[in-house]
Amino acid sequence: MLFSSIISSILRRLKFRRGVKYYFTFIGFAIVLSFVLMALLASFISPYNPVKRAGAPLESPSFKFPMGTDGLGRDILSRIIHGTRIVLRITLLSMTLSFLIGVPIGLLSGYLGGKLDSVISLFMDSLYAFPGLVLAIALAVMLGPGEISMGMSLTVVYIPTYFRMVRGEALSVKENLFVEAAKAIGAKDRTVMFKYILPNIIPSLPIILSLNAADAVLTAAALSFIGLGITAPTPDWGFDLRMGYPYLTSKIWWPSTFPGLMIVFLTLGFSLFGEGLTEILNPRLVRR
Amino acid sequence: MIQVQVKDLKKYFPVQKGLLERILSRKVDYVKAVDGVSFEIRKREIFSLVGESGCGKTTTGRLILRLIDPTDGRLIFKGRDITFLKGEELRRLRKNMQIIFQDPYASLNPRMRIGDAVGHPLEIHGIAEGGEKKSMVFETLRKVGLEPPEKFYNAYPHELSGGQRQRAAIARAIIVNPEFIVADEPISMIDVSLRSKILELMKQLQSELDLTYLFITHDLAVSKYISDRIGIMYLGEMVELGLKKEIFSDPRHPYTIALLSAVPIPNPRVKRKHIELKGEVPSPINPPSGCRFHTRCPFKEETCETEKPRLIEVTENHYVACHKAQTLSIN
Amino acid sequence: MTSMNRKPLLSLENLKVYYYTDEGVVKAVDSVSFNMDRGETVGLVGESGSGKSTLGLSILRLIPPPGKIVGGKVFFDGIDLTALSEDEMRKVRGKRIGMVFQDPMTSLNPLMKVGDHIVETIVSHEGVPREKAVERACSLLEDVGILPERFNDYPHQLSGGMRQRIMIALALCLKPDLVIADEPTSALDVIVQYQILELMRKLKQVYGMGLILITHDVSIVAEVADRIAIMYAGQLVEYSDVNSFFNSPLHPYSEALLESIPNIQLSDQKLKYIPGIPPSLINPPKGCRFHVRCPYAEHRCGEVEPQTVEFERGRFVKCFRYVE
After folding, report:
1. What is the pLDDT at residue A6?
2. Integer distance in angstroms from the first to the last C-alpha of chain A?
């Protein structure tokens, strides 16, 4: 979480010339896309079975094992390729769910206002006040390990982000004259919300979506790292990092470094993409 | 025949206060935006509400359309009390009364194509859908001069000029065949060279579609051009009301007289006597006692400070709220 | 006064101001020339996007980027302002040419007392002792109709009309020879507008400065100006004294404009309107820029740009109808 916000602030401080931001968006998109392809084609491109022993334990990187092998002699490259699936699935699941829940609630709350809005906002703000990781850990402990429960706990963490953003936008969009105009032609609240307010909020959503995705990758890795994630032997970056790092003291760097790098790359990809989108879609937001 | 009747209409808006003030004092202040206004609009007439910013003319328009709820008073539309209409009934009423806003840049949804925006009222009221809707939209676009309609149907508001957008907004208002339209400063944000065309269009639509207008404006010259009758508002109250001819040839309220003498005239050779008003419009939170205009009135007497003048008929169909209305005249 | 060899106060020669935007070059001011004398009031009239505000700003060399003066000269009291360095120009601004904007709130510092605005300006430009500047500020406030006890008020405590009075005092505090007022009354109600126009008329007699009044409302010009300049699509199409102009406008655009505005003095007025919409300044029509909307347009109007001719002494018009 800290990491992605650091990237964001660095990117923000760099004085872009025109066009540079388009490159960043493109690079970010390319990174994310290549991970997606890697996940889709995992069974074809991975050289070994990720859960079976392929060579001697802790073999250093070589032609046979480009990233070496882990403590149980499994090919790290293959585990990384297959691990992409898990991390993207969890990210996708949690992003979709939190989007589908957070956006309508935020819209409703911001548009209707009143007591309902106060109650929902209070609840969402208290969720938001928790550090994301702490909340995710607490939820993951309750739900137990596994892909679905990880997705669920991340969902709960990110609902308030969408909620707050959509509610805020709805509050400002509903002050527009065209909303009053819609009421004047006799539109129902539902029509006003979905035909007049939501379409004016949607352009800001891809940004939140990709920045949250960056965050989710890190949080998911963190959950796995502390053992609240996927159960062994399923390949998973966070878990592999955890299993590899004790060897660092013995100068065996590869079992932890490669999964770590992957986490960094994917996060970077989402962040670059999101930041670039912010610049392109909402230029005023950043420049002033 | 009377189309709209407004009886003692009031709208008080609570004043937003800071946290500290709210803790320190329980008293809530109100902006008395509209404070006891009564008038009627006859069928097929153009009635103008004229006044300076903050006089309550726009609030009155929104109150009549029930876009905001009145604090007090009664609204009668075609003999039916609509003051307390709610939900489905209110929604159905909207088919009969429409509004054209001042700002054509803000009154159209930027993410909705012109055709969808103009046709939306048809959908909302279940009048037409699909191809039938499209042909009705085309017809209406033609009526407001957005031709050829197929060019505008798929355009987004930002692709149109201010005048074209206002035409689209007018199309949206008339497509459901309303009887009554509130036009809130419909030309003040439009390029000077295009204003007269919009006024002309509104007049033409009025006779074609048997419309009744409430025309809200700050511009006396425009109101003189377009209206049949005029009401002059000051600080939430109606101060003078009458036929256009009466208001312009025989204004009786000192405020009307001052307002008329301040309007710039596009003729450098005309020199008029000007009535200088003291100070500025007082706050609508604590309006002056008695006649609200007494703090600035050059003809003020003692009674004006204590006694509120009622709107009385000075000549036929010409009403003035001033203690000296019978004696005062610019002629 | 020997008016023969007297230099005009302001003289524009073929001034061109372009904005280099992503969409293309916006020719906001395209070859504008006119002279104005000392103590004169010129009403500069045009619709939004006609270039009138850009023209006002370009005299002060305050055009925001991506705008640039790309050609022509601005002679002020015989000095070519376009040739001055930024430092020299700064001394002209405020001191010799004052400016009044439409929205006084954005031009006043919200955290500074209104009196101090004036005092600071006087002290920084003239280096006089503060007490003296305060004295002068107080008398200025009185001149613009603001009680001296308002000296310590902040801008938000004043009404729109009062803020505009402060702006006028600020523009006048260094006794400039020329004041440029850009839509000074457009945000004000009609009665306050009248008060401000009256004030400017009165101050002109006291201070004797020249005034360029930029507005979209010809009626205002009829009320206060000596001369009128009509801008259309970045060009000056007519320049004339006010009386002759309102008596018989020359340019077809001026004529149509006057016939399209409601006049409160007339009853049962028939309004005319100008067909079409104002042209884009990126791709203005060929020939005369008004020809597409002009009822008198001939073939040549769409082919060649008409020259500006002096129809009568002091009346200039850019239209083929007045070319022999």
Report:
1. 60
2. 25
Please count the CA atoms within 13 angstroms of the CA of B180 that sit on its side-chain side.
22
- The closest CB to that of B264, out of C216, C222, C242, belongs to C222
Is residue A136 left, alpha or beta, with left meaning phi > 0 and alpha meaning psi from -120 to 50?
Answer: alpha
As assigned by CATH, the class of the A2-287 domain is mainly alpha
ipTM of the complex: 0.86
Cβ–Cβ under 8 Å, residues A219 and A136: yes
Domain-located, residue C154: no
Nearest CA to A261 out of A58, A53, A31, A43 is that of A31
Question: Is there a contact between B67 and A180 if contact means CB atoms under 8 Å apart?
Answer: yes
Contact between A181 and B99 using a beta-carbon 8 Å cutoff: yes
Structural domain boundaries enclosing C84: 10-96+176-322
pLDDT of residue B149: 92
Q: Decide: B38 and B313 in contact? Cβ < 8 Å.
A: no
pLDDT digit string, tens, across residues C209-252: 999 999 999 999 999 999 999 999 999 999 999 999 999 999 99
Asked whether residue A12 carries a pLDDT value surpassing 60, the answer given is no
Q: What is the pLDDT of residues B21-40, one digit of tens each?
A: 777 777 778 999 999 999 99
Does some domain include residue C58? yes
Residues of chain C with pLDDT under 70: 1-6
Q: Look at B225 and C219 and tell me if their CB atoms are within 8 Å.
A: no
Q: Are C220 and C197 in contact (CB under 8 A)?
A: yes
Question: By C-alpha distance, which of B263, B234, B283 is closest to B57?
Answer: B234
- Give the whole-angstrom CA distance, residue C37 versus residue B127: 65
List of chains touching C (3+ CB pairs within 8 A): B
Size of interface A-B (CB pairs under 8 A): 59
> Is the CB of B248 less than 8 angstroms away from the CB of C243?
no
Residues of chain A above pLDDT 90, percent: 36
CA gap C259, B193 in Å, rounded: 10
Any chains having at least 3 CB pairs less than 8 A from chain A are B
- Residue C139 belongs to a domain: no
Answer whether B110 sits within 8 Å of A196, measured CB to CB: no
Residues 42-101 of C with CB under 8 A from B: 47-48
**Residue C163 belongs to a domain:** no
CB contact under 8 A, A177 and B91: no
Interface check for C152 against chain B (CB to CB < 8 A): the answer is no
- C contact residues 207-226, partner B, Cβ 8 Å cutoff: 216-220, 222-223
Give pLDDT tens digits for B202-250: 999 999 999 999 999 999 999 999 999 999 999 999 999 999 999 999 8
What CATH number does residue C297 fall under? 3.40.50.300
User: Is B112 within 8 Å of B160 (Cβ atoms)?
Assistant: no
Chain B's closest residue to C255, CA to CA, is: B193
| CA–CA distance, C191 with C198 (Å, rounded to integer) | 11
Minimum distance, in Å, between the CA of residue B163 and any CA atom of chain C: 8
Whose tokens are 């104005």? That residue is: C36
Rounded distance between C-alpha atoms, residue B149 and residue B134, angstroms: 10
Contacting chains of B (3 CB pairs or more, <8 Å) are: A, C
Q: What is the 3-state secondary structure (H, E, C) of B9-59?
A: EEEEEECCCCHHHHHHCCCCCEEEEEEEEEEEEECCCEEEEECCCCCCHHH
Residue of chain B with shortest Cα separation from A198:
B111
Which of C162, C223, C264 is nearest residue B224 as measured by Cβ atoms? Answer: C264
How far B308 CA lies from chain A's nearest CA (Å)? 35
How many independent structural domains does chain C possess?
A: 1
For A151-175, what is each residue's pLDDT tens digit?
Answer: 999 999 999 999 999 999 999 999 9
SS3 C319: coil
Q: Where are the domains of chain A?
A: 2-287
